[in-house]
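Section handout, structural biology tutorial.
Before the tutorial, make sure you can parse a SMILES string by hand: atoms, branches in parentheses, ring closures as digits. In the record below the ligand is adenosine-5'-triphosphate, and the chain has 592 residues. In the tutorial you will relate the predicted structure tokens back to the input. Do not try to memorize them.
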Amino acid sequence: MFVSSSIAAPAFSIRELIAPFRKPYLRYLAGSVLRQILLVVGGYSVVWTLRFCLRRPEISVWWVVPALIAFDGLYVGLDTALNALFARHISFPLFGNLRATALEKMFHMPLEWHQRETSGALVAKVNNGVGRVVQTAEAVSRELCPALIRTGLNLVPLLYFSLVTAPVLLGSVLIFGWLTVIENSKRRSFRRERHQHYVRDSGVFSEYVQSVQTIVQFGQTHRLLDSYGQLQRQIMDGGLAEMQIAYTYGVRKNMVLSAGKRTCQALWIWQMQRGHLDVATLMYLNMLTEELLSSFWNYAGLLERIYEDLEPARILIEMLEAHPAINDPAGALPVEVPGAVGIDLINVRFSYARGRQVVRNVSLSIEQGTIVGVVGRSGSGKSTLHHLVSRLFDIEHGELLVAGTDVRQWPLEQLRGVFASVTQSGGVFLSGVTILDTIRFGRPQASAAEAESVARCACIHDDIERMSDGYLTPVLQGGANLSKGQQQRIALAQTLLALTGDRKVLVLDEFTSQLDSETEARILRNLRPWLAGRTALIIAHRLSTVREFADRIVVLQDGAVADEGKHQELVDRNPWYAEVARFQANSTTPVA
Ligand SMILES: Nc1ncnc2c1ncn2[C@@H]1O[C@H](COP(=O)(O)OP(=O)(O)OP(=O)(O)O)[C@@H](O)[C@H]1O
Ligand SMILES: [Mg+2]
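Predicted structure of the complex:
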């Protein structure tokens, strides 16, 4: 029943999501009707017992008790079976399905979308939304439906024995329902705002937690606590205003029910005085009316919970319905991946959402089996080129071909499967996973010997050997128990290990920026056999990183190709490049 993971972004459909639950739900509803009938019959059995014992005083009441207990047992058995059916076939699978769908959605949404949302807010939307959808399903199925059935069944004897009370009850119900609807419509905007605040709260909270060390070091805890306090005050003010509406309508609804109940009681006494009701029936009717009127309160409380649950559920569904801007092309067929893959950018232009153009008319060819280095000032658009080739963002203008096929014609999963990259933000470090499995993240089936071999190439093997459990040492969240340089070397090892099969193009974005020059030199030496005959894009600030291998070096300036050539050619003719080369020759500090 759980959703399988595939890169083809599925359109989220509530209809499909609930389809597997239809049959068990119908079974549950049928069982619920039976359960409520047993309940009403059980209530009426007191009247029946009383009448029977009054009529036949010679029969001891104790003979009837076992039959009544057996009847109660039947009810309890059915109730337990229905609850088990609901949990096994509806609530748990619904919870799991929704969360898996949400995670799948996260994987498919483009980078731009993720950058707009904070991770804390996303987690809150999913956590609250999924929890509340399940709660709503439970409230409707396990409380509202049975309560409605019971009310309907209770009304039958009530109207049968005392039809005269019908207009009173009906009037009370209508006024009560009308007040409930008005109350909730008045509270809706408060509720909506409150839930938006909750999402913001989670986003802010998790951002602060992620940056806790820096916040404390800058001594900014009081300022952030103040602004967090303001958010809490907004939540409280809105909540109190909403409660005020609830109180006002609560009093009105109470008075309506009280007037209804007292009028009914007066009517029964009047009926009894005329000999139309006996004491047993009056007691029974009183019990039914008490139950009926108090069930209105239950309805109101239930409706309030459902309204309250619907808001986070709406936020979740809105998120699940978001369409990824970057998707598989309709009817995309797999591309025949050649032995070596070339990349061509022709007059490519690109800007991030509503921003200025960060790639301006870039034309660049990375021929099969060649290595191109990209250098340029910080912010000149180097990493953006990396994002574009694997279609993390779509270009605005021009053409981008991978192995001669437009990236928009490639099935997304296949296109991304052509690249093995070290991103500037480093590798993947999932908490609790051993170093060995962290290295094998991109190719879990690789052997330990293969993992060790890439670790040696990335000059991280000795560091790992010195760790408490060697390759079996677990990683902490985000690689917190590793130095930045170690993280970077493990990221390189992850990438090298993944470089098999169709993953033919290597992209290295600032992959040595955290390393000392000596370690960098050793890694560059080790990389030589890996790079022989391979298509690669190497992005770096340090010229030493690219001049080692690059067949051609491209200088990016403000999103445009300012120059390209071999290292020495650029030193001779490009003033910026020559300046950087001179500076770096005299210093080991990376130039920004
Ligand atoms: N997600 C984004 N949304 C909006 N603008 C962005 C985004 N990512 C980068 N930019 C902007 O695009 C420009 C190019 O950024 P890019 O990361 O490609 O630079 P870079 O050359 O890799 O820089 P660095 O050497 O510092 O890594 C910068 O001006 C940056 O502010
Ligand atoms: Mg960059």
